[in-house]
Design goal:
Layout lengths: L30 E3 L14 E5 L2 E5 L3 H21 L12 E7 L8 H8 L10 H9 L1 E3 L2 E6 L2 E8 L11 H4 L1 E3 L5 E3 L1 H9 L7 H11 L2 E4 L2 E4 L7 H9 L10 H4 L9 H24 L2 H10 L7 H8 L3 H15 L4 E3 L11 E4 L2 H22 L4 H19 L3 H13 L3 H13 L5 H19 L6 H16 L5 H13 L6 H13 L4 H13 L3 H14 L3 H21 L1
Parallel strand pairs: 1-5, 3-4, 4-7
Antiparallel strand pairs: 2-3, 2-13, 6-7, 8-9, 10-11, 11-12
Helix pairs in contact: 5-6, 6-9, 9-10, 9-12, 10-11, 13-14, 13-15, 14-15, 15-16, 15-17, 16-17, 17-18, 17-19, 18-19, 19-20, 19-21, 21-22, 21-23, 22-23
């Protein structure tokens, strides 16, 4: 059978989605498979490269198509910032990466390709012809997908005509709602990702509320258009429109600002999200937007500290009870009002590069996608991970042979091996990358982690030497200097000081406190920093940090971890007194 011209197969990265049961004979879960690109040796893909600040793409489409996509991306970003100030969105020094494949090549998922995958050696003794046939029969392919790393994301876009829709709504796996070939809107899932990853971390009630408002928003025609509020059920919203005096339950703000418990039912979570969305909508739009600046001031005030009733009253000019009544009074208006935000003149379009991709550009972006696929499938379907890892390694080796030494390829190879747990090879690649000037936060963190683990093993139970401590800190310093901030940088820093022969100096403690400011609700960060203070004898400071963490913790699990540490430190303080 003839192989496709550009993509030989779009291979599996099963993500655990379960298809509907159509009949008793089809009770097995359908497996959704995201794309892996395999070139034909005779006719390799000719990639074009599109870039602007914060955005990169490789595509087999004409450069004009890639440019049009980038222009729409930029317009979406600017309109989003008219609704949500940019300071509250996650930012990274690593451009958002995209792979867009179009034309007949994107449609040709052949039997030969599936046969090649399902009969590939997997190391699974139960892998046989019958099993493989059943796997093929229950396989579907995701047309689009976004995969994420602590400092980056990659989106695969399969653009084609007359594609048969998948059984599943994959928009929030993708991040874009496509309206036409190059016109799209960011999905609520992508906005939630940008809010959740932001540092210092935002309170859950604001994230839930802002995402709820955005779910009713269209970013189009140069304006932000917000539809009426969806309250509980369509029937209940309609009843409120007809009768503004209809009884309704609007939660007290103190309860709203508390995160739902871990065992909350789906109905409880949905009700809490509705309440959060109503409050944020009131703060943004009620009384002709009179409270909007108060909302941003309140968020800034409570950054890194618990929600405080005094701070709320100082910002909004209302106490909790008065504000709750105002929100309740606003609800009948919210279910029927429509708002437009005119951001005025948007910033000019930045210069957009649109040209043939270099070998390094194509290899780097493909390698990032393939590495994230390996990491994802390792969690979801570990039996498929070896095939994905082989595929990614083979492509990187081919790129090295064609390109030679490159900072970008060394970063990709180093992170691939780091994620695979192959620390010796990861060390070689990452040391090369940093020596060549790489500053990517995830690469610097991975090198620091590898140096730490190798130094700890070499110490054989003894404290890590001053020289090795300095090596780990130098890599962590690179990660700290570049966006985004990552919680694992500070937990590793804490582990280092708990295992080093050196005592941290004031600048080292300030670096740890930086982690507390950026991740005040992260029990792992707070716990490590508190343990470092206890390790150097500053028990009081350790206890203060843990109490701060308890005030900020959003989950019961985090509170339990911090309480156990507090109990340990209480015993330590008793023995030392």
């Amino acid at each position: 059978m003839k192989a496709p011209t550009l993509i030989r197969w779009i291979a599996p990265l099963a993500i655990g989605l379960t298809g509907p049961t159509l009949a008793p004979a089809q009770e097995e879960a359908a497996v959704m498979l995201p794309p892996v690109i395999v070139d034909q040796a005779q006719r390799p893909i000719r990639w074009n490269y599109i870039s602007m600040p914060g955005f990169e793409m490789i595509t087999n489409a004409p450069p004009s198509s890639g440019r049009e996509f980038a222009e729409n991306y930029y317009r979406q970003e600017q309109l989003l910032r008219a609704l949500i100030p940019g300071k509250y969105l996650w930012n990274t020094s690593v451009p958002a990466m995209h792979i867009m494949v179009e034309g007949r090549a994107a449609e040709r998922l052949t039997d030969e390709a599936l046969e090649q995958f399902f009969t590939a050696p997997s190391g699974n003794a139960n892998n046989n012809a019958t099993t493989n046939r059943r796997q093929r029969e229950r396989t579907e392919f995701l047309p689009n997908l976004r995969l994420e790393d602590p400092d980056s994301s990659v989106v695969f876009i399969r653009r084609e005509a007359n594609r048969t829709p998948t059984r599943f709504d994959t928009r929030d796996l993708f991040g874009f709602r496509m309206d036409s070939e190059n016109r799209f809107q960011f999905t609520p899932g992508l906005v939630a990702f940008r809010l959740t990853r932001r540092t210092p971390s935002l309170p859950p009630w604001f994230i839930a509320g802002m995402v709820g408002v955005y779910a009713q928003t269209e970013l189009e025609d140069g304006k932000v258009k917000v539809d009426s509020n969806h309250w509980e059920t369509p029937l209940e919203a309609d009843m409120l429109r007809r009768n503004p005096l209809r009884p309704r339950e609007v939660a007290p703000l103190r309860r709203l600002f508390d995160s739902p418990p871990a065992n909350a039912t789906p109905e409880h979570l949905a009700a809490w999200r509705d309440q959060c969305a109503l409050f944020v909508r009131w703060a943004l739009f009620a009384d002709e937007g009179a409270h909007r600046s108060s909302l941003w001031r309140f968020l800034d005030w409570i950054e890194g500290s618990p929600v405080d009733a005094t701070a709320f009253e100082q910002c909004f000019g209302l106490d909790y009870v008065e504000a709750r009544d105002a929100v309740s009074d606003y609800l009948p208006q919210a279910v029927q009002d429509y708002f437009e935000i005119d951001p005025g003149r948007l910033p000019p379009m930045p210069p957009i590069v649109a040209r043939a991709a270099s070998s390094v550009e194509a290899a780097r972006i493909r390698a990032e996608w393939e590495r994230l696929e390996v990491a994802f499938v390792r969690k979801q379907h570990p039996d498929l991970a070896p095939a994905y890892l082989r595929h990614a390694r083979n492509n990187l080796q081919a790129a090295k042979r064609a390109i030679g030494s490159s900072q970008e390829i060394a970063v990709a190879a180093g992170l691939l091996e780091f994620d695979a747990g192959n620390y010796p090879e990861a060390s070689r690649e990452l040391e090369t990358a940093i020596a060549l000037g790489a500053t990517r936060p995830r690469a610097a963190y991975a090198l620091a982690k590898v140096r730490f683990e190798m130094a700890k093993a070499a110490a054989g139970g003894a404290p890590i030497s001053a020289a090795d401590t300095g090596g780990v800190l130098s890599a962590l310093a690179i990660a700290r200097r570049n966006e985004p901030r990552m919680a694992e940088v500070y937990t590793l820093m804490g582990d280092l000081w708990l295992n080093s022969e050196m005592r941290p100096l004031d600048p080292d403690l300030e670096a740890l406190e930086e982690g507390v400011r950026n991740f005040p609700s992260d029990a792992a960060v707070i716990g490590r920093v508190a343990l470092v203070y206890a390790h150097i004898g500053e028990i009081g400071q350790a206890v203060s940090l843990l109490n701060l963490g308890l005030d900020q913790a959003h989950t019961q699990n985090a509170r339990d971890i911090l309480r156990r540490l507090l109990a340990q430190l209480g015993g330590l303080r008793s023995r030392s007194s």
